[in-house]
Amino acid sequence: MNFGKNFVVIARWELKNTLKSKKFLLIFFMQLSVLAMLILMFNSFAATIESDKGLSLTPSLVDFATLDVDDQGGLFKKSIDPEVIKVYSTNGNGSQARMEAGQTNGFYTVSPDSIQRIQNGEVVDTVLYLDYSDPRRSVVRDAINTTTKSVSSALTQSYLQSATSSNTSSQTGLKEEKTGESLPMQIIRKVMLVVLLFLPLFLFGNIIIDSVVGEKERKTGEILVAMPLSPVEILLGKGLAVVAISSLQVAMWVAVLLAAGFTINNVIAVYLLVVLTALPIVGLTSIIAAYAKNYKEAGIGITFAYVLVVGFLIVPALAYISRKSFSANISPMTTVMRLFAGEAISLPEILMSVTLVIFLSMIFFGIAAWLFQRDDVIFGPRPGLLRLFLELIGFKKRT
To answer: Nearest Cα to 274, choosing from 244, 253, 252, 247?
Structure first.
């Protein structure tokens, strides 16, 4: 009956003491300052890239995707971004065979009388052939979609200017401006935004380390163990306080990003999923804190653990950009990226990442509580990792 009340009381006490700490407040506002600097640097970088004298984004992208193009008029071919697609002009003969042999990533054909059709105001037929076993197909498809929109916008603007110049009235003519971003810029913006959203989750690991390891170094762990509280209540209370602080930081960062002009669709769902992801990260940190002897050991452990966590989060997200596979949604970072980009996402795809996050949270907090209730782990002599692992999976040492 008192289980929920006990760990909530501990969480409230931990949260109150943390928020009253001048050190925490200093770190909190320093992190917001770092976020502002990162946004400023990114906007400057983006402005440089998108300018006429901008930097070449990634030279290797030219060889990353290739495309055979049959465009006798040349209008569509010259509009394909050379920093994304390397174009090979062809008359169509052998292009299908080249694509099947893996010598090109696709074949794009345009009506041979495209110029005449445009002059007559008729529809121009374009066909894009892709190999759906090739993960680079999404890069080619997005680049061609961008090309088609670019040509359409240019033709519309030319038509409007022609209509305006033939109008003898003094009415101001209409003007259509291209506001879309290039494909590489869209990818960079997606990756940067999703990294910034998850970054606060890794900035408060020192709080749980200080809270748990500090109990050992200050010799106050005995008092906690002697209290009428279970290890699960103690760990959940301390962990809940850190999750609450992380949720506050994420909310602040989302507000700053929105104020800076970033577009975040489904902002509530994005926020909730990011905060939910804090649970297994705090649980994993609690395992390290419960086992570590001192701050130095905990710092080394948390560094290696966070590298693995970041890899697990970001690798599927990057894989999804190149190949939109269902399995990439195992990472909550992939789901968050799709949500704030406004993509259509099914319920099973959301449940995949949410279920994994909840499952890992239960496992990690369970292991942390199991370690915290062992006298040999808290007070020593501490058993080795192999022995603990064998005991955890059910093997007991013979006496």
So the answer is: 247
Q: Please name the residues in contact with 315: beta carbons below 8 A apart, sequence gap of 6 or more.
A: 331
Return d(Cα 94, Cα 91) in angstroms, integer. 9
pLDDT in tens, 109-152: 888 888 888 888 778 888 888 877 777 778 888 888 888 888 88
Q: Which of 156, 180, 204 is the last residue of a domain?
A: 180
Closest C-alpha among 377, 188, 344 to residue 266: 344
Nearest to 262 by CA among 324, 57, 52, 270: 270
The CA distances from residue 306 to 114, 215, 299, in Å, are 55, 23, 11
User: Could you report the per-residue pLDDT of 274-324, keeping only the tens digit for each?
Assistant: 999 999 999 999 899 888 888 888 889 999 999 999 999 999 988 887 777
pTM higher than the cut 0.90 = no
Same domain, 175 and 211: no
Q: Are 164 and 298 in contact (CB under 8 A)?
A: no
Report the distance separating Cα 335 and Cα 276, nearest Å.
12
Give the count of domains, the chain: 2
Q: Domain limits at 155?
A: 61-180
206 and 334 belong to one structural domain: yes
Distance (Å, rounded) from C-alpha 85 to C-alpha 150? 15
Return all residues near 66 (Cβ < 8 A) that are at least 6 apart: 85, 86, 87, 88, 103, 104, 105
Look-up: residue for tokens 């609450």?
A: 244
The single-letter DSSP state of residue 265 is: S
What residue type is 305 in one-letter code? A
